[in-house]
Amino acid sequence: MVFSSILFMFKYLPVVLAIYYISPVKWRNPVLFVVNMVFYGWGEPVYLLLMLFSITINYVNGLLIDRFRENDKKARLILTVNIVINLALLGFFKYYDLIAETLSLLPFISLPPLGISLPIGISFYTFQTMSYPIDLYRGDADIQKSFISFGTFVALFPQLIAGPILRYKDVADQLTFRSESAAQFASGVRRFVIGLAKKVLIANNVGLLWDTYAAMGASELTLVGAWLGLAAFTFQIYFDFSGYSDMAIGLGRMIGFEFLENFDYPYISKSITEFWRRWHISLGTWFRDYVYIPLGGNRH
Fold first, then answer.
1. In 3D, which of 193, 206, 211, 270 has the Cα closest to residue 238?
2. How far apart are CA 122 and CA 139, in angstroms?
3. Is residue 222 part of a domain?
């Protein structure tokens, strides 16, 4: 189920918003948890088990890290095991068939390809769940004792497909208390429509131009055609990603959440470094804070 589909816009979303706003405040997180699961399981229900497993593992390990906060050795061991489990799951579903195919070239190794389809959003929710115990271990976040609230954070449907990648510490207060308003809801609708226009009117149509040039053989492609194809691909990928991010931010506002911006006009950048800071900001800052800096990188 994608945001630009008739099913989502005219069936799923109106029902979700109606149920959400008629529910008492204390029941809104449980309502979101259930509708998140429905959204995620719509295409391939079997992967609901994988998501629930990921939520459970990170929730339990978060409790253990908090419990052994004064015992750094145990807390670090739990964190390490948690990271390994998360990366193993992500690596298996993303790369097993590629690794099996590559190793099959060797005469003494034979791994059967499994034809595994990639679970929707697994990269995004894996990064989200990993950041929670890491922040707990660092003392940058407080423990979340409610499984439902933690599960709501991990599987929040507005940003599950294409981000922005959330960090628990950024939305912890909003999980506990959200102050929805008509102005915020209207702002969310406006932002969703902008993102929808980017996706449907620009990205999809520019994508058709890219497909046309990409299908041409080298002998058919002119210099002008090559440049037009490159420009089409460049704009398609930007308006597709930023359109989804706009829709996610808008949907979040409709239910009282404020997500961080994810794109900041990356194509006006004057350097690769500046481009990295402006393109898919939540992903770039995630790798900066959890990979680059811990490995000795510059904080600035």
1. 206
2. 26
3. yes
Return the closest-CA partner of residue 80 out of 151, 128, 137.
137
Return the sign of the alpha-carbon dihedral for residues 182, 280, 173, 3.
Answer: positive
Residue 293 in domain: no
Q: Which two tokens stand for residue 45?
A: 């229900």
d(CA 121, CA 236): 20
How far, CA to CA in Å, does 119 sit from each of 46, 158, 167? 9, 17, 21
- Give yes or no: residues 135 and 47 share one domain: yes
Give yes or no for a contact between 242 and 278, defined as CB atoms under 8 angstroms apart: no
Regarding whether 170 and 195 lie in a shared domain, the answer is no
Q: Which amino acid is at 221?
A: L
- Of the three residues 148, 178, 208, the one that is the final residue of a domain is 178
Same domain, 172 and 192: no
Q: Indicate whether 107 and 238 sit together in one domain.
A: no
- How many structural domains comprise the chain? 2
Domain span including residue 243: 183-263
Query: Alpha-carbon distance 294 to 200, whole Å?
Result: 40
Read off the pTM.
Answer: 0.89
d(CA 241, CA 3): 12
Q: Is residue 270 part of a domain?
A: no
Q: What is the pLDDT of residues 196-254, one digit of tens each?
A: 999 999 999 999 988 888 888 777 878 888 888 889 999 999 999 999 999 999 999 99
Structure confidence by residue, pLDDT tens digits, 9-58: 999 999 999 999 999 999 999 999 999 999 998 877 888 999 999 999 99
Query: What three-state secondary structure class fits 220?
Result: coil
